[in-house]
Amino acid sequence: MIKIPIIDSHTHINSYDSKEIPTIINRAKQNGITSIIDASVDISSAKSIDLMTKKYPNVFGGIGFHPQNLTKELNKSEIEQMYKLITNNKKILVISEIGLDFQTDSPPREIQYKAFRKQIGIARELNKPIIFHSRFCADETIRILKEERAYEVGGAMHYFQSNNKIASELESMGFKISVGKPLLRIKKLENVINSTNINNIIVETDSAPQPFKKDRRKWTEPKDCNLIIDKISKIKCENIENIAEHIFNNTFNMLKNGSNWLMKEHLSYGLI
Ligand SMILES: [Zn+2]
């Protein structure tokens, strides 16, 4: 087991059956994953995350509206509820999951742009980093990040599957590249990770129920962060503990104010 604390910076474990959640968290702990940041996609999941962070010391939260869950423009009540959930709970560390998704069946783009811009505005106002989604629209995502000055709060492009050009643009704006399990199977990502500065890489599993995988043991869980770190260490030809230490520090740096709170929780519960 890797001796350095590991943070899974993006998951959706709230969407698992409630009976399964404690076992997933335990398996993570047994594998050295000391903290899990769980991201909402709408108000209902945001409320579950609020409760989960109060129940489990090593679970932290991200509150935000996922682009694929937008059926209409965000209204005043949704924004107010979002504010309340973030400002009343110190364990909400990031604004997430927000972003853009340009698949053919995704919600209308105008609705997505408005929600993305609005939520970057909230992140800037509350000084919280953003963890953002971008599918088939990396250039547009970068345009909005620049126009809305999202680099002032920083954060990460999650489940990174883009190319070197996008990675280096994000790096130059101070964003992290959040890597998930696709790194284990997509060859071109190895090249991106090889070229990305180790100080700009964090890890995540994006874990959510995967009923299409018949064998339950193959569902992605936070414990799988170890596989991603192992792969990064092979690509970078560096000791796994050194890589894990960089990733831990990178996540802390990204979280800024939130990292103090996360550190306190780690220490008080003997997580490190
Ligand atoms: Zn996600």
Which helices and strands occur, and which strands form pairs?
Elements: E1 6-11, H1 21-30, E2 33-39, H2 43-55, E3 59-63, H3 76-87, E4 92-101, H4 109-126, E5 130-135, H5 138-147, E6 155-157, H6 164-172, E7 176-179, H7 187-195, E8 201-203, H8 225-236, H9 240-255, H10 257-268
Parallel strand pairs: 1-2, 2-3, 3-4, 4-5, 5-6, 6-7, 7-8
Helix pairs in contact: 2-3, 8-9, 9-10
Residues 10, 12, 39, 97, 206 line the site of zinc ion.
In words, what does this structure look like?
Helix 5 links the parallel strand 5 and strand 6. The protein is about 45% helix and about 15% strand. It is globular. Strands 1-2-3-4-5-6-7-8 form an eight-stranded parallel beta sheet. The chain contains ten helices and eight strands. It has helices at about 20-30, 45-55, 75-85, 110-125, 140-145, 165-170, 185-195, 225-235, 240-255, 255-270; strands at about 5-10, 35-40, 60-65, 90-100, 130-135, 155, 175-180, 200-205. By secondary structure, the protein is an alpha/beta fold. The chain starts with 5 loop residues before the first strand and ends with a helix. It has a single domain, classed as TIM Barrel, CATH 3.20.20.140.
CATH level-two architecture: Alpha-Beta Barrel
Q: What level of helicity do the residues show? A: 40-55%
Given helix and strand content, the structural type is alpha/beta
Whole-number mean pLDDT: 94
CATH superfamily: Metal-dependent hydrolases
Rounded to the nearest angstrom, the distance between the terminal CA atoms is: 14 Å
C-alpha Rg, in Å?
Answer: 17 Å
Q: What gross morphology would you assign? A: globular
The CATH C-level class name:
Alpha Beta
Largest sheet: 8 strands, parallel
Low-confidence stretches: none
Number of helices: 10
Bound ligands: zinc ion
Strand content: 15-25%
Tell me the series of helices and strands, N- to C-terminal. Answer: EHEHEHEHEHEHEHEHHH
Biggest sheet, strands in spatial order? 1-2-3-4-5-6-7-8
Total beta strand runs: 8
How many domains in all? 1
